[in-house]
Amino acid sequence: MLRKVRITLATIILLGLTFLFLDFTGTAHTWLGWMAKAQALEAVLALNVVVILALVVLTLVFGRIYCSVICPLGILQDIFGWIGKKAKKNRYSYSPELKWLRYVMLAVLIIALLAGIGAVYQLLAPYSSFGRIMSSIFQPLYQLGNNVLAGIAERADSYTFYSVDVWMKSLPVLIIAIATIIILFVLAWRNGRTYCNSICPVGTVLSLLARHSLLKIHFDADKCKNCSLCTKNCKASCIDFKTHTVDYSRCVVCGDCIKSCKFGALRYDNAHLHSKATAPTDVSKRSFLLASALATTALAQKKLVDGGLAPITAKQAPGRVTPLTPPGSLSVHNMAQHCTGCQLCVTKCPNNVLRPSTDLMSLMQPVMSYERGYCRPECTLCSEVCPAGAIKPIDKAEKSSIQIGHAVVTVGECISAQGKDECGNCERHCPVGAIEMVPSDPDDDMSPYVPAVNEAACIGCGACEYVCPVRPLSAIHVEGHEVHKHI
User: Fold this and answer.
1) Maximum Cα–Cα distance across the chain
2) Which of 200, 256, 242, 198 is nearest to 66 (CA)?
3) 331: which DSSP letter?
């Protein structure tokens, strides 16, 4: 029963999080956004006290079920390990805990977080690794499949599906995602939970609590025949059948050992209470409690949907002195301190404005660029889906007053300034009226008109840069601000 409950809940979580990343309409967040908020490291960075306390209580009562039921990367490892077991049954063996490696990885994560070295802790964060795999590898495939269906539907005069623009947001992130899934597959296929119990810093922190959990898997020495099947089926390599011991710091309560034991020598309960009890333990009640406890981590989330998936023309990104970070991120520093690079905001941006940074110090963190669209003042989706507090929740009214940067005109490239033609696209499309076309010669009203930017009113949305007809670089572009301010 324990194993069935674990597989059922893990399947729900994995499918939910997968669709959360694959969905390009923004509607999935209404029902599935809580799954992202329930991830451990993201909850800590967002100071989400409710989730943190729920995970602590969950671990102290049930053990490390977070790693086998809630963490998508852990569930993915189980699938790869299951494939390995199909190739060879009873493939695992007991191995001692690699404490030095676990705590070194944890120390690296903490130092990177304190120093704001995003490229380091983003590589170690399990949920972020899963997000990169989904957004860089599987979402484009999902979108291509959608476009095929859209083409078929169009021939039948149906608008059930609509085509979307499929493009590579970042080659370095794609390479990292491919390398991650290959490494995970090899490690899990060969020896189950090697990454989870030797490298993952989240697993290391939870292991400190799991040692003292109320419910544990333990041996009934009188029934054990030392057949070693439990050890050979333990993907965490934490069961030593010779000494009848379980390393609870690595046990993820998957239930495989209980299923493999033919003599009923393994139980999942409170060993001390069981020794005094006279009645058998009701496994169904434990399973119900397990499911109920997991359900308490759900957080109801509201969502805003901004339509903007219209076909757009690609342009070349300018070299910005200061990167643009989304409204609600407060500053470049705050983004570096909190963002885990999970790519959820990138996959949910309806205007194709967000993409992973390729800068080494902020690698994989979202930055804004306006070749494929601009940041619409009415859209706040990225602030709603961020699980780590890197982008704080904001409303439409607040977003319209947040200045993330300001527009800069390259007069020599402007069509109007060159006297070739009258343009004024930037002025007409500025949503806050911060651009005005003025004579290049103040004393001659007949001189070519050029755009003048009121930096005090500009919010850096990028509408001007996006609609500028000059190619390959726009004659007007947005420079980011290190610290955002309200205007």
Assistant:
1) 102
2) 200
3) B
Please give the span between the terminal C-alpha atoms of the chain, in angstroms, as a whole number.
Answer: 58
Measure the CA–CA gap between 317 and 167, rounded to whole angstroms.
15
- Euclidean distance between CA atoms 373 and 28, whole angstroms: 22
Dist. CA 466–CA 445, nearest whole Å: 28
Cα gap 69→61, rounded to integer Å: 15
**pLDDT tens string 53-90:** 999 999 999 999 999 999 999 999 999 988 888 778 88
User: Cα–Cα distance between 54 and 286 in angstroms, integer?
Assistant: 18
Reply yes or no: is the peptide bond before residue 472 cis, omega within 30 of 0: yes
**Residue 440 near residue 450, CB atoms below 8 Å:** yes
Model confidence at 272, pLDDT cuts 50, 70, 90, reads low
How many Å apart are CA 18 and CA 23, to the nearest integer?
Answer: 9
How far apart are alpha carbons 104 and 56 in whole angstroms? Answer: 22
- Six token digits for residue 69: 């039921």
Place of tokens 């500009």: 458
Give 436-445's long-range contacts (Cβ < 8 A, gap of 24+): 440/411
Residues comprising the chain, all counted: 487
| CA–CA separation, 278 and 260 (whole Å) | 26
pTM for the whole thing? Answer: 0.82
Q: Rounded to whole angstroms, how far apart are CA atoms 427 and 219?
A: 75
Q: How far apart are CA 235 and CA 189, in angstroms?
A: 10
- DSSP class per residue in 155-198: HTT--SS-------S-HHHHHHHHHHHHHHHHHHHHHSSHHHHH
Count of CB atoms situated within 10 Å of the CB of 27: 11
Instruction: Say how many C-beta atoms besides its own lie within 10 A of residue 22's C-beta.
Output: 19
pLDDT tens, 90-118? 888 999 989 999 999 999 999 988 887 87
Distance from C-alpha of 163 to C-alpha of 150, rounded to nearest angstrom: 6
- Quickly list DSSP for 286-305: HHHHHHHHHHTT--------
Q: 486: burial class by Cβ within 10 Å (0-12, 13-18, 19+)?
A: exposed
Residue 59 near residue 68, CB atoms below 8 Å: no
